[in-house]
Amino acid sequence: MGEVIYHQDKSFESVNFNGKTLIDREFNNCNFINCNFAESVLNDNIFDECVFENCDFSMSSFLSTGLNKVRFIGCKLMGVDFANCNKLMFSPSYDNCIMDYCSFYGARLKNTSFVKCSLMEVDFCEADLTSACFKESDLIGATFSNTVLKKADFRQAQNIAIDPEYNSLAKAKFTIDQLEGLLYKYNLEVDNNF
Fold first, then answer.
1. Which pLDDT tens digit goes with each residue over 66-110?
2. Is residue 150 a contact partner of residue 131, using CB atoms and an 8 Å limit?
3. Which helix H or strand E contains 66, and what residues bound it?
4. Cα separation, 181 vs 189, whole angstroms
5. Non-local CB neighbours of 191 within 8 Å, separated by 6+ positions
6. Are 1 and 24 in contact (CB under 8 A)?
7. Are 44 and 27 in contact (CB under 8 A)?
8. Strand partners, 27
9. 181 or 111: whose pLDDT is higher?
10. Rg, C-alpha atoms of the chain
11. How far apart are CA 79 and CA 152, in angstroms?
12. Cβ distance 52 to 32 under 8 Å?
C-alpha cells in the first residue's frame, strides 16, 4: 500500500474511470454521478458515506475496499464480487440497480436494502442477510445456500427460489403467492384460485 489520497465532500460528475486502477484512496461524503467505473480496479479504498448515482461498475474489482454507509442508486453493478470487500466496513444499500451475476458469498449484509434491483443469478450463499429488504427486486436464478435470512422481507420480491431446509428463514416475510418459490423442489402445484 502506498500513501493514501483523501477526498472529502467532493462531487464527481461524468468522469470516465473505465478500466483504470484507483487504489489507496479514501472518499468521505462524496457524490459520484454518471461516472463510468466499468472494469476498474478499485482495491484497497475506503468509501465512507458516499452516494453513487447512475454509475457503471460492471466487472469492477473491490478487493479489500470498504463500502461504509454507501448508497448505490440506479447503478449497473454486473458481475461484481462483493465477497472480497472489507468486511468490517461493509454497509451498502442498493436502489434501482442492475446487479446480475454479482457475488455476496459469505458477506455480512444485515439490514441491507435491495429496492427495485435486478439480482439475476446473484450468489448469496453463506451470506448473512438478517433483516434485509428485497422490495420489488427480481431474484431470478439467485442462489441461497446456508444463508441467514432471519427477518428478511421478500414480500414484494419476484422469482424467489429458496430451499428452507438449507437456509435459516426464521421470521422471514413472504406472501402466499411466494410459497411456490419455497416449495419448488417438491414439484408441487400450488393453486391460488381454489
1. 999 999 999 999 999 999 999 999 999 999 999 999 999 999 999
2. yes
3. strand 66-68
4. 11
5. none
6. yes
7. no
8. 7, 47
9. 111
10. 18
11. 24
12. yes
Q: Which amino acid is at 142?
A: A
At which residue does the C-alpha cell 422490495 appear?
135
Find residue 141's DSSP bridge partners.
none
| Integer angstrom CA distances of residue 161 from 94, 133, 139 | 21, 16, 8
Contact between 32 and 12 (Cβ < 8 Å): yes
Residues in CB range of 138: below 8 A, 6 or more apart: 117, 118, 119, 120, 157, 158, 159
Q: Give the three-state DSSP class for 5.
A: strand
Question: How many residues does this entry show for the chain?
Answer: 194
Instruction: Give me the half-sphere count of Cα atoms (radius 13 Å) on the Cβ side of residue 25.
Output: 13
Q: Cell numbers 479514501 label which residue?
A: 26
Which grid cell sits at 97? Answer: 440497480
Segment (H or E) for 103: none
**Residue 123 and residue 145 in contact, taking contact as beta carbons nearer than 8 Å:** no
**Residue 40: exposed, middle, or buried by beta-carbon count in 10 A (0-12, 13-18, 19+)?**
buried
Backbone angles phi, psi at 134, to 5 degrees: -115, 40
The reported pLDDT for the residue numbered 192 is 67
